[in-house]
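Summary for the steering committee. The consortium agreed at its last meeting that each partner would contribute one worked example illustrating the joint modelling workflow. Our contribution is presented below. We chose a case with several input lines so that the handling of multiple components could be demonstrated. No manual editing was applied between input and output; the record is shown as generated.
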Amino acid sequence: MRNVLFYSSLERDNRGMWVAVVCLALWFTRELAAQTKPTAPQGDDAQVQQFVTQHCLACHRGDKPKGNLRLDNLSLDLGDGANRKRWQAVLKRVEAGEMPPEAKPRPLKDEVKALTDWLAPRMAAADAAARATQGRAVLRRLNRIEYENTVNDLLGIKVDLKKQLPADGSADGFDNAGAAHHTSSFLMEKYLEAADTALDMAIANRPKPPPMIKERYSIKDGHPVRSTTEDVYRFLDDGEVVCFCSSEWHNIWVSKFYPPNDGNYRFRISASGFQSAGKPVTFRVTVSRTRLTGRNGLISYFDAPPDKPTVFEFVRYMEPRTTIAMLPYGLGHANTVKKTGGEKWEGPGLAVQFVEVEGPLHETWPPESHRRIFGDMPRTTFGIYNFRDRVEVVSDQPLVDAERILMKFTRRAFRRTVTAEDIAPFVDIVKARLAAAQRFEPAMRAALKGVLISPEFLFLRERPGKLDDFALACRLSYFLWSTMPDDELFALAAHTSPPRPRGKSDEEPSLAQRASESGRLSDPDVLREQVERMLNHPKAAAFTENFVGQWLGLREIDATEPSRLLYPEYDHLLKVSMIREAELFFDEVLKHDLSLTNFVAADFTMLNGRLAKHYGIPGVDGWEFHKTPLPPKSHRGGLLTMASVLKVTANGTTTSPVMRGAWILDRILGTPPAPPPDNVEAIDPDIRGATTIREQLAKHRSVESCGVCHRKIDPPGFALESFDVIGGWRDHYRVTGQGETVFVEGRRMSYHKGKSVDPSDVTADGRRFENIDQFKQLLLRDKPQLARALTTKLITYATGRAPQASDRDAVASIVKNIRAKNYGLRSLVHEVVRSEVFRNK
Amino acid sequence: MNIHLRHVALPRRTFLKGAGITLALPWLEVMSSHADSVTTAGSITEGETPRRAVFCFFGLGINGRDFTPPDSGRDYKATPILKPLEALQRDFTVVSGLKLTHSGGHVGDRTFLTGTNTRSPGAKLRVSCDQELAAAIGRQTRFPSLTLGIKRGTGFGGYYDQTLSWSPSGTPIPSENRPHVLFDQLFRQETADTLDEREAEFARRASVLDSLRGEAKRLNGGLGANDRRKLDEYLTGIRDLERRMQDEKDWLRKPKPYVEKLEFGKEQSLDPDKKGLEYRRYQRLMYDVIALALQTDSTRVISYLARMDGQDGTGSWRDMGNPYNYHEMTHHGEDPDKLKWFTQSDIWYMEDWAYFLNKLKSIKEGDGTLLDHTLVAYGSSGGSINAHHNHHLPTMLAGGSRLGIKHQGHIIKEDVRLGNLWSTIFDRMQVPLPENFQGGEADGIVKELL
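What follows is the complete predicted structure of the assembly.
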């Protein structure tokens, strides 16, 4: 209990500790010079003791230490990782000059240096010693996203397993951190169930593929078109239907398509804009019965061009008894349209000519996933009462086959070479089953299930020291793809030729084949080429989604629902467009090795029509995104002013400079502020508009104990005050109380015009800015710091642990190397992979 | 058309087989309108009355101005929000002034039963006290505990939790939110086929799990101490699962209690994960099933996350014509309209709470009522003064009079930890406090209640 308390208090106020330590060191050297030894504490660590006594203990001692940080009993046993972590924090605060607080006597520079000189090398040595036996990173378990991807790639299936598993804990801001992963009986049970689901999907017990559906449907037979009493549709020839309203309850299901079997289905939707004045009409396609959180449930938005029927085609995995639903965007309200009626309505509409569906799509039978396990082994009928023609794989020499199959399967599942000893426990399962007179296939299923819940499958095996090529392949693959290595990576790790793709035997030998003669994965050139190949692969979308989603907090887009009174314009299209913008922007910077300073300020962004309207930038229409140069005075460009970031840093009703400031310090500058003390109440803005948040915070900052942190936190937050909770520009707050009436496009809004916004402030080091544009320029002055921050995040994500004290040099060297490359993001990824931190456990 | 298909698809033999099973079990009696007796299911003996604990959580706090009585003592004057409970005034105690050190903001749900779990980076996830109770007494009933919530699953990884319960290794335990499904789990009789299949599945799982031990040991070889700890956790997970499977197996062949089927009506609108939730109908049925679970001794420990932090999840505002969601009202910013609705919603929730307590009180048990033998906690992670702070939590303990609770009306325990109330419940459940209880966030019991 003490540990927990102490730890949290440290997090809160390591600043205090730091100052204290620095002070102590300073005092000690001075004292030492002034007097002879006897009064000084004995022993090697006397300097530290002196410093702490002199500069820290006045506040940080006893049962009720300041900031809940107690130093009088903190051990200097640096072999203990927890102690090391605390002293690390103390050093950081003292070095930064944050402690002792300004009002207290400052320690001399020499004192601080003496403290650092004593502590830093000892901590680094202790850290290195721990590392030699432990490695830097902690054993990682596949998180649920990685688990789903890995099982799918291993078996050659596509099934949603993530939702069957509990979510994973996070450490240092990412959910692929070993330290945060725990395993319990509940999780083990879920793994057993998920393995069943996956194997059922992979192994085919049907003699023939499920019956194929190939149909053309009209949405006139869909719900609610066929049943509604509201007159909002126009029915044309050949089943063509024009939809005139965008009200949620007119979300149209393709009800006639309701497949009994799951699988991949190809959809072809023909649609066009109707009476749309030469403009495209955007519509969305979703999976029925799914809650639209984040991007879940959304297949895509599409732009139907005016008057010209166009086919939109996609392939989608469908669960049994589900269908798709369509809803046009931005058309009239049902209650308005129905007054005129669908036949006479002159406003724009979406004409849907037909929806064609074909599937489930199978290239071979039994499917590829089945053959990957059993090859072409014979199958025989073993009917059960409601599945008479059910077939099972049979074997004449079951144990021989079992060993062969398990050897091959386990090698990929364990992501390394395996021996007979490795597969023995699973062969034993088969033996026991066969001995109990069970059939071959059920026995094999049990053994395969055993592999899928075994620790070597669920955990990423890394030995302390330099990673072997298999472990390196895994680290690389989970970093950039969030899944297991593919054949090429395996071949490079195993130092063998990868299987040649069928029908491509005439081609030049692939890189991997050449590598098998000239090098292996750990060869820097090979590694570099692999990173390029992997980043260019579609699977790299997982890197963007998982890294950016957590770095920027985009996964929390639905944490609050904006108040409908204050922000009536917030809708689903805007939400998904926001997320997409941030991801596409990251992709663009990564693809072209653009400078990571673009994340702070850029002269372009990725826009579609909805977002462009939100940002007040003319000339972009429809759902599709375009790289768009930003006009002067757009105030956009860079992550800070993206709607998604502004949305996740606000609650649904109000913005808080504190939240946003802390976000910038943590995510962009890499200097996260200490969490607020427990006994402090959050500031609740007065949304009636009587006082502004600035007036409330001003009081706050004038209190010394608050001001110490808030002088740093608040200014970046104030710079973003010009943006509301959904990332729209504002000169005035929106309030529910008294104020001038607001009209938008001729309609009276449910909110009023409040006080004007003041985004100016002075940074902690005294630099004044008037608005966000000037603030961005201030941020750009310290590019190495921006690079250091992002490097730290990338290393954390790539290795499952944040850089530690002894990684300081490694981080610094990466930053130095990419400086020569104009801080290119792609170069940074290469540097991270090349670094010792990445290549050692 | 569907019906026609069903006839064709069901072979006659299957039908007869099904009918045979139906007749073999006193299942028809359950369906009959005359079956009003309730049999008990736990390991309860004649004359014994079990001790039970229910932890209910209402996220985001309450409008304290209209909740907290201005005066204390047994005859305090009921405030507008407490009005619905007026008739029950001797059956519960409002405990004002309690705090949760690590709560505050929108994220106290995780702290509520664990004392220390927070969402701050590096926070160590730990066991919740309902699970500690379940570990101590859970084997006496078919369900060691029930984990319920307004939303299904754990919500972990998202922004708000959907469960209050955490396993000893700090894994969130998923909650159930559909009263009809919960009823089925508790009372639906399994067919002989299902039981055989379940038993076979247990055996299959056991052998697969068994094979992993050697595997894990071999992996253990080359690992450092930190990594070994992770692997130990894995092995403990396997061991716990085996033990749980054994417990389940022990209960498998014992028949479930027979109770009259509740009238669930349209089930779609009872599922809070779907659109069109009829909140009040859902809420009352949920309380009905909880009462049945306790009455039949199917479990003695329940956690229920009845309203979420952040997004409340109940959608209650819609039914009342309230334009705000619960979260918006708590950030009322002194807006009189919001404050008005805030109180009205709280009264509305409290009416359901009164329904629950009355339900428990209406069930006779021994020489008292079910309520007298159940410790029912009502609490929140958010304070009652303004917005949702971590102090002055709206809290009440109801029931338990026959377990030695002496109700005091309204008591004020300024600056005392919520964990102390949980300690009091452990004391009355006659379960010794586990080590490191609440991560240290408990330092005594609420003596006034004893």
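The longest helix of chain B spans residues 192-220. Residues 1-37 of chain B have pLDDT under 50 and may be disordered.
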